[in-house]
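User: Okay, second chain of the day. Same drill as before: sequence in, structure tokens out.
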Amino acid sequence: MSGTEGKGVVKDSRAQPSLGTDPFEDTLQRLREAFGAGRTRPAEFRAAQLRGLGRFLREHKQRLQEALLQDLRKSAFQADLSELILCQKEVELALRNLHAWMRDQPVAKNLLTPLSSAFVRKEPFGLVLILSPWNYPVNLILMPLVGAIVAGNCVVLKPSEISQATEKVLAEVLPQYLDQSCFAVVLGGPEETGQLLKHKFDYIFFTGSPRVGKIVMAAAAQHLTPVTLELGGKNPCYVDDDCDPQTVANRVALFRYFNAGQTCVAPDYVLCSPAMQERLVPALQAAITRFYGEDPRASPDLGRIISDKHFQRLRGLLGCGRVAVGGQSEESDRYIAPTVLVDVQEAEPVMQEEIFGPILPVVTVSSLDEAVDFINRREKPLALYAFSRRSQVVSQVLARTSSGHFGGNEGFLYQTLWSMPMGGVGHSGMGRYHGKFSFDTFSNPRACLLSPAGLEKLRDLQYPPYSATKQKLVRWALASPGCTLL
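Assistant: Same drill. Structure tokens below.
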């Protein structure tokens, strides 16, 4: 049976006339009933869904690669590296740790609860909505899905309609590998997403822009629904004078131009002295030529811009500052060359919005202090990078700034570490995921205290009237280790 024929997919209503009915109501009701019946809670069920997801990734690897090539001109290797392998490893990690993560966590007690059992139970929230973006359309929908599954939730997945080829694979094939009474893929554009957000969910996980994040958060507030917001922002990259410019250029170019710059944790602009700029720009040119050849447009390792609308926005940003490297573009191919801009002013559009493309502005500062001030007077970024041979310089940038992620002499390789949480702070988002952090995100930590039904005489100390002796003993008991009262 095709996934679009089963009940795991709500068909795209964009091309259908409105009949005044809610296209999502039946699906959401089915999932709520499944959760209420406890279908997703057993460890065996969660493991079966994870194994199904793993089979989907293995059995449809080529089709997913082809979809990513069509959407973003992403090579098979880059598709594996940044999407498929990471998702597969996330599934395997969850399967290995499923029982340990689900296990109740005993906690310390005090002298008022000596015979009680005190523990934290991680229970699922219930019906979860995952809204994913187009730039990593497999990774950024399936990674949070793993966390929602392992935590025992029912899930509604809403892939981006912009990455159309990948959306089609997810809609047609993925539901065949999951229990369709507990999981559904829904389709549509902004109008359908807005209609979907009118419904009450128990948790919403959104990855996208701060502008849309505010809309999602406002909708969630109507039902007091908790959210994780994985947003973006302008990620600074400070380059100290005490650096090897070619080493810095290699690392910055790799992470700036990967996926044609359409990465939320990519370095968004460079801060350096005028002297370092003179050394860094030729090094960036050399790195770009080394990575992508004399004609980057012919390179299989350089992606394309996702849509005509995004291409036009980025081409407009090429008019900011002065083009020092690259600057070429071709509308028919949605191609923008790896570009470096210099003489950029802070008030220009390229410094006012997240670029999300293969354009790197360089802004000059006179000192580390000026760079830190520049960073701190802007919104807190999702990621921040600092390059220097002097460890104390990197440490100062780390200590004097705030961001979701930080890389010292490194790019976003932390994305490959399941031991590290992913997420923003302030304007760049809230909440964390990856590995155990995903399980915790999609779980409610329920405080549980189980006391004996009998032995009532032992509790006499807690009941009024409170004599001077009782007061003294209660105070002493409350002061014992592990006591916390609101």
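The radius of gyration is 26 Å.

User: Thanks, on to the next one.
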